[in-house]
Amino acid sequence: MKIRGLTKKIFVYFLIVIILSLSSVGIFSYMTSSGELAEMVENQMNQIVGNAVHHTDLYLKDYERSIVSLLTNRQVMEFVDLKADREEYDYYIARKTIRELSVDPLFIRNPKLSSVYVISDELNAIYYYNGVGEQSFNAEDKRKQREYFLANTAADGKLSILNHTIIEGQENQMLTLVRRFRGFTSPELSGILAIEMRSADLSALWKGIDLGKYGYLFIIDNKGRYIYHPNGEKVGSDVPKAFVEKMEKAGTSSFIDSSEGDERMYVSRKSDYSDWQLVVSMPLRELRKPLMNIRSTTLIVGLFTLMLAILLAYRFGKSITKPIQVLKSGMRETEKGNWATIPLPPHKDEIVELMVRYNLMVKRLSEAVDRVVQVEISNSEIRMERQKAEYQSLQLQINPHFMYNTLETIVCYATIQESEEISEIVKALAYMLRYSVQTNLEEITVANELKHVLYYIVVLKHRIGRDFEIDVAIKPEYLLHVMVRLTLQPLVENVFQHAFPDGLEDYHFVRIDGGVVDGIFWISVEDNGSGMTEAKLTQLQAKLNANRLADTETDEAGKKGGIGVLNVHRRIQMVYGESYGLRIESVAEQGTKMIMVMPASPKQSDKPSGE
Predict the structure, then answer these.
(1) What gap in Å lies between CA 131 and CA 123, rounded to an integer?
(2) Taking a C-beta distance cutoff of 8 angstroms, is the pair 587, 428 a contact?
(3) Residue-wise over 379-388: b if at least 16 C-beta within 10 A, else e?
(4) What is the pTM of this model?
(5) Organism's domain of life (predicted)?
(6) What is the pLDDT of residue 494?
(7) 48 confidence band (pLDDT: 50, 70, 90)
(8) Contact 91, 82 (CB under 8 A)
(9) Cα distances (angstroms) measured from residue 124 to each of 74, 191, 490
(10) What is the pLDDT of residue 6?
């Protein structure tokens, strides 16, 4: 049937479009909302269980620190060294001293601890209790306790978390954090230290987690037993095998199970620290309620919108023909680039609003052109600030392991003897710290960098236990040339970390040289150490060519590698440009040569660096 009249055509066409649009939008909205809601619920449960794992690990780590404070206590270590035939007075004094100096403060800081006890290989044992009845044990009891802990703890002294207790009547209600440790006079692990806490206290960590009326969390250990469950009767019992299989198969995804009486959704996460599996559970009927609400709301809103759209389409069709030519003329002017507004009629309706919006659009487009220029200028400034922040952050990426090891050396010297070496180390370390923490200098003289390396060698000779000299072949006329600060010492440190894996020998050498060739200033660090294979050298050069900041990586042995060499290369590029940086030459079993390439800049006066 042929429809005459623009108004009728618009009404009919709009009616068809509205019905089709509402139908398709309603159907797809419902399907999309359902899928997104299910995904949101799963993500929420993943986040909840992830947070629970995180807080539980922090809770256990806090208690692990309490164990460490006791392990390093001299009285505890001396108690482990007591012989089996020790005097009762010695036992009394040790027990009293440990309680007053270590255990009582520990109970004050951690009121949720139930007990602390130490058992030595000689079956000397001391027990301390907090809020539970004290118990005594004979020699056979102590022997059985020691054998149990030896069979269920790591031989290297790492912390173990057990669903175990020595307190009578508290079975399956306690968690024991236990580890082996050595005495004061022997390097052998000859003692066992354990602390016990109530597993129900873990629920206090999750009070802020909203799982609704019927949702809850529970914990499964690596042997497939409940460590914590809101239903206390299940604690200590075995988890159904079918449930464990579903949980392992699902991994970090959700799964459905009805072993607890009704259909429930579960999401689990394994703690790398405690080796526990934390599981969050919610009933499916609660999860599906929002989907039912969405379906009902979609139908109601769809019908209401359809009726309203028909009415608006009818009124719109009757009033659209007159002002359409005005809009058409205005659009033609816009096509020509003339940002001119159109005149508005005296009456008010949808078309007039459209014309108002058109005028507003023209005005905003005109303003947007001006804003684009300002945004580009602002973005340019932001990029410069980011580059500057990136450079300063690179200066702060100093590998802390060297400083930690040095402090350990100082502690050893201080314990063994009073010597001038300690003073020498501290002075060198203080200079290096002052030199390292300055972030306002990008360039420094070669002389200052060599001085920083000199203090590093002073500290290093005490760490390795022997003197070692570096051959500095740089000519005096190059000492006042400028270079990027904190780039020479990381390369020297890299030599001692990687070039001499079997230790320093008399024939080993490290040579620092420099010069100017064709306007290029270069400084090299060369050694005759183990060198690198072609594959490793190619891999390192590929990383240098990537011109990216270095992230800490893990090597084949599982150790985290340094970032010094890559960041030296990047820092030079950020100061002088990407045509400069670090060049590496290496031959396996013959040595390595690292060359810093920089522009030859005018000499500057020697400035003090933090002294």
Answers:
(1) 25
(2) no
(3) eeeeeeeeee
(4) 0.40
(5) Bacteria
(6) 92
(7) confident
(8) yes
(9) 16, 9, 50
(10) 60
CA angle 120, 125, 128 (to 5 degrees): 130
CA dihedral 502, 506, 512, 517 (to 10 degrees): -100
- What is the separation, in whole angstroms, between the first and last Cα of the chain? 96
| Residues pairing with 225 in the sheet | 238
Q: Which residues pair with 270 in a beta bridge?
A: 277
CA 83 to chain centre: 46
Contact 73, 116 (CB under 8 A): no
**Amino acid letter for position 454:** L
Q: Which residues contact 611 (CB under 8 A, 6 or more apart)?
A: 431, 434
Rounded to 5 degrees, φ, ψ at 312 are -65, -35
**Amino acid type, 253:** S
Q: Which amino acid is at 51?
A: N
Least confident of 9-23, 42-56, 198-212, 253-267: 198-212
Tell me if 287 sits within 8 A of 215, measured CB to CB: no
Instruction: Report the number of secondary-structure helices (H) and strands (E) in the chain.
Output: 15, 17
Q: Distance between CA 398 and CA 563 in Å, rounded?
A: 9
Residue type, 306: L
Q: What is the dihedral of CA 56, 59, 60, 61, to 10 degrees?
A: 120
Residues in the chain: 611
Positive or negative torsion for Cα 355, 356, 360, 363: positive
pLDDT tens digits along 587-600? 999 999 999 999 99
Q: What is the CA radius of gyration of the chain?
A: 37
Mean pLDDT of the chain: 79
